[in-house]
């Protein structure tokens, strides 16, 4: 059965095409900076927003029309596997991501949940073997169920901690079974409501304790994917321990997890943290911790996680610049953690939205590549900091030849002749527009 019988495999037709089921910019085999475009971009489709999101919001009932709903939860879950791989094949996406609860019903007990996971991931493995599509990452949903009201790793209840550990163990077993390249932790409830009843150090010690159990089990199990922590500042917890890239890196370094954990960064989470996406990517890159990204965008007029498909070419260009400067993102990838808008409720919108996101990243990749080839940003930065390499005082400071006494002497002699250079930042942005358009 085909869930999208009216749509053939999406092909690249160029920007002049009027075919809405065609790529205008994403040409998978086009060579950019010596590699095919698909190797730079490593697109993945998210199971949760694509297959389980229903179009509801805090103020409205579901709107999405979906033809894979069956008579039982397990029938629906099996239908979703078929529909999902049809979407992947028609888009030419080579990777996918999922939470455990996305693919299999929780049932009435932990045993039933684990059995359901086994049955559905068996079907997923068959489809993977048939298509060659790979698992970019999976994860355990340890935030939706009421048992995680006070966190998973950070919970005040050791029985909940044990349940979380069992869920993660199963996730790692599934990762091994499906050959997952990465495994993600998003601590949706790993935070606190008020310090009046919270032991922050104890909670973070326990999160680290769980992560160290994860490392030990992965080594014992003979399958150790790249572990990723996904920062987010709020929603649902008021004070989340993984607020942003810098906060999360402080946690990783504090607990000695640098060799095993990197970051999975999301554009909309950067917005909620008060940062740009490229800021978060730069922080991770400078820590050698840029592992993977979730591709989406937020609505600047709304204060919550809207998870829109990325269509802003400037933002994506600056993100791709950081990724290219990082030497790429493998074994991570670009996962569309994005959902169609409430008004885009038709089945075909799932394909059209991913086409829009893939085309936007293709455009961003090509512009970022041109910026790197021309050394445009590098030259702007080099000129701004040029006095450090062109003046005697700059060179001697960098060489470690100065101290407070010698620099004070220099300042008394030359301090009144300091001449600052303008950044001409408006001109720089104007030239950047020339690259974009």
Automatic annotation (TrEMBL):
What EC number(s) does this enzyme carry? Answer: 5.3.1.5
So what does this thing catalyse? alpha-D-xylose = alpha-D-xylulofuranose
Alphabetical GO CC annotations of the entry are: cytoplasm
Question: What are the required cofactors?
Answer: Mg(2+)
Q: What class of enzyme is it?
A: isomerase
Q: How is the cofactor bound?
A: Binds 2 magnesium ions per subunit.
Extract one GO BP annotation from the record. Answer: D-xylose metabolic process
What positions does the entry give for Mg(2+) 1 binding?
230, 266, 294, 337
Which SUPFAM superfamilies does its entry note?
A: Xylose isomerase-like (SSF51658)
What is the annotated localization of this protein?
Cytoplasm
Which keywords belong to this entry? Answer: Carbohydrate metabolism, Cytoplasm, Isomerase, Magnesium, Metal-binding, Xylose metabolism
Where do the annotations place Mg(2+) 2 binding?
A: 266, 269, 305, 307
Active site per UniProt: 99, 102
* Annotated InterPro entries: Xyl_isomerase-like_sf, Xylose_isom_bac, Xylose_isomerase
Query: MF terms per GO, please?
Result: magnesium ion binding; xylose isomerase activity
Listed under subunit, the entry gives: Homotetramer.
NCBIfam families, from UniProt?
Answer: PRK05474.1, xylose_isom_A
State the family it belongs to.
Belongs to the xylose isomerase family.
The record's section on HAMAP family has: Xylose_isom_A (MF_00455)
Name by which UniProt lists this protein: Xylose isomerase
Origin organism is Listeria booriae
């Amino acid at each position: 059965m085909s869930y999208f019988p009216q749509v053939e495999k999406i092909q690249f037709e160029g920007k002049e095409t009027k075919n809405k089921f065609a790529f205008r910019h994403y040409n998978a085999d086009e060579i950019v900076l010596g590699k095919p475009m698909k190797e730079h971009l490593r697109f993945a489709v998210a199971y949760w927003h694509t297959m389980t999101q229903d179009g509801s919001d805090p103020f409205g009932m579901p709107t999405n029309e979906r033809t894979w709903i069956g008579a039982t939860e397990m029938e629906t879950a099996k239908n979703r596997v078929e529909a999902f791989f049809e979407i992947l094949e028609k888009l030419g996406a080579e990777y996918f991501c999922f939470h455990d609860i996305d693919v299999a019903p929780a049932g009435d007990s932990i045993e039933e949940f684990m059995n359901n996971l086994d049955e559905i991931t068996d079907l997923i493995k068959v489809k993977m073997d048939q298509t060659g599509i790979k698992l970019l990452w999976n994860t355990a949903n340890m935030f939706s169920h009421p048992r995680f009201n006070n966190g998973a790793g950070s919970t005040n209840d050791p029985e909940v901690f044990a349940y979380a550990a069992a869920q993660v163990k199963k996730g790692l077993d599934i990762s091994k079974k499906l050959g997952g390249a990465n495994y993600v932790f998003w601590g949706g409830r790993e935070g606190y409501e008020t310090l009046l009843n919270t032991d922050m150090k104890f909670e973070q010690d326990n999160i680290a304790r769980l992560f160290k159990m994860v490392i030990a089990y992965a080594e014992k199990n003979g399958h150790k994917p790249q572990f990723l922590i996904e920062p987010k500042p709020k929603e649902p917890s008021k004070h989340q321990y993984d607020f942003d890239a810098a906060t999360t890196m402080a946690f990783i370094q504090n607990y000695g997890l640098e060799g095993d954990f990197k970051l999975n960064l999301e554009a909309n989470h950067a917005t909620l943290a008060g940062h740009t996406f490229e800021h978060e990517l730069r922080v991770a890159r400078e820590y050698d911790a840029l592992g993977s990204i979730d591709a989406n965008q937020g609505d600047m007029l709304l204060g919550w996680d809207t998870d829109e498909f990325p269509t802003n070419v400037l933002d994506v260009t600056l993100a791709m610049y950081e990724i290219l400067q990082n030497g790429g993102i493998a074994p991570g990838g670009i996962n569309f953690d994005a959902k169609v808008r409430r008004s885009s409720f038709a089945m075909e919108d799932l394909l059209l939205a991913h086409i829009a996101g893939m085309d936007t990243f293709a455009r961003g990749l090509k512009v970022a590549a041109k910026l790197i080839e021309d050394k445009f940003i590098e030259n702007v930065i080099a000129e701004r900091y040029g006095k450090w390499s062109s003046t005697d005082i700059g060179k001697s400071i960098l060489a470690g030849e100065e101290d407070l006494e010698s620099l004070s002497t220099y300042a008394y002699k030359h301090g009144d002749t300091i001449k600052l250079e303008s950044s001409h930042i408006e001109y720089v942005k104007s030239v950047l527009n020339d690259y974009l358009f």
